[in-house]
């Protein structure tokens, strides 16, 4: 845990509900963006779904805000990132959603082909066994 939270953890206290969201909001208002991103990367600030969804609704798609959104989007867990992409009406989010969809399709296709190969491999080995048994019986 981050040094700020060690007192809570050493006393076995849980953080109050909404603490990480409030902590992130104060950090975003008080620190320059590069520091906030560094704190997120080092686990001092935690990206919460509530804060991110509110931030996406508040910010428009100006060039500066798009850069901010992208820098945050790359740090989000995949589940929250998918929700955010669905809310964000921007070509980049459409691109990310399409890329993820194609990835899922290829994974499904790959798993179907692997199952088919395994099935075919099983049939081949059975037919090979049958043929070898027939040859073995004919030779006797």
Biggest beta sheet attributes:
none
List unreliable stretches of 5+ residues: 124-140
Helix content: over 70%
Structural class: mainly alpha
Q: How much of the polypeptide forms β-strand, as a percent range?
A: under 5%
Our measurement of the CA-to-CA distance between the termini, rounded to an integer number of angstroms, reads 74 Å
**Computed CA radius of gyration, to the nearest angstrom:** 27 Å
InterPro entries: GSAP_C_dom, GSAP_fam
Organism: Pseudonaja textilis
Pfam families: GSAP-16
GO biological process, one term: positive regulation of amyloid-beta formation
Tell me what the structure shows.
By secondary structure, this protein is mostly helical. It has a domain at 23-115. It contains seven helices and no strands. The chain has helices at 6-10, 19-30, 33-41, 49-58, 63-73, 78-87, 91-139. It is extended, with a radius of gyration of 27 Å. Mean pLDDT is 75; it is low at 124-140.
């Amino acid at each position: 845990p981050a040094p700020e939270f060690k007192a809570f953890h050493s006393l076995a206290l849980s953080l109050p509900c909404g603490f990480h969201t409030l902590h992130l909001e104060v950090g975003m208002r008080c620190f320059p963006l590069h520091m906030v991103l560094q704190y997120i990367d080092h686990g001092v600030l935690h990206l919460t779904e509530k804060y991110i969804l509110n931030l996406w609704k508040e910010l428009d798609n100006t060039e500066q805000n798009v850069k901010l959104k992208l820098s945050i989007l790359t740090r989000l867990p995949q589940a929250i990132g998918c929700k955010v992409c669905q809310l964000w009406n921007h070509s980049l989010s459409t691109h990310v959603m399409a890329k993820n969809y194609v990835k899922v399709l290829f994974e499904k296709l790959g798993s179907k082909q692997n199952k088919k190969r395994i099935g075919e491999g099983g049939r081949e080995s059975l037919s090979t066994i049958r043929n070898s048994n027939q040859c073995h019986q004919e030779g006797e």
